[in-house]
Amino acid sequence: MADFSKQLSKYVPAAAAPIISQWINDTSCRFRVSKSRKTKLGDYMAPFQGQPHKISVNHDLNPYAFLITTIHEFAHLKTWQLFKNKVKPHGSEWKENYKKLMQPFLTLGIFPQDILQAITKYMNNPAASSCTDMNLYRVLRQYDTNQQQEITTVESISEGSYFLFNGTRMFQKQEKLRKRYKCIEVTTEKVYLFHPIAEVILVS
Hints:
The chain starts with a helix and ends with a strand. The chain has helices at residues 5-8, 17-27, 63-83, 92-106, 113-122, 134-141; strands at residues 30-34, 42-45, 54-58, 151-153, 162-165, 169-177, 180-185, 191-194, 199-202. By secondary structure, the chain is of the alpha+beta class. The protein folds into two domains: 5-141; 151-202, Roll (SH3 type barrels). The chain is built from six helices and nine strands. The chain is elongated.
């Protein structure tokens, strides 16, 4: 049985690495550290035509975000083992498995107190991604060490400010509509709705 703890400890808190290593062995999962992806933090692929379970997690996440994403994807694996594709991807079955898999890590002293509080609150109703829970997302972001200083979020800039999205498209921030911010693309004058924690580069 391979021990992946040493490799995993580069990405997750050391105390968590043996548990994740055991999960990889127990499920014969092909676990991969992926390049950064803007559209997702990690993903899970069910076995197909003799292939093993596959999980990938973005390499540039901080250790706590990497661990939380890993648990998220293993909850998908566990749900598939129990129900195959007969249940919703993030339905009640997945939520229950996520809570069960997260539980051991809550008692090991792995998470700082602010993250622990945010996770505990998030676990009342886990969502499709930790990014959709703004409180947990904000707390996790405080532990990032590889963020460029000029990158900020839509919610943190003032109304009327101009910002770049995806490096090239310029928008002007308008008022908040329910849960998202109305923003106007400068060149086309089209209106777009931005999530409060969408990452942008402030221009003025």
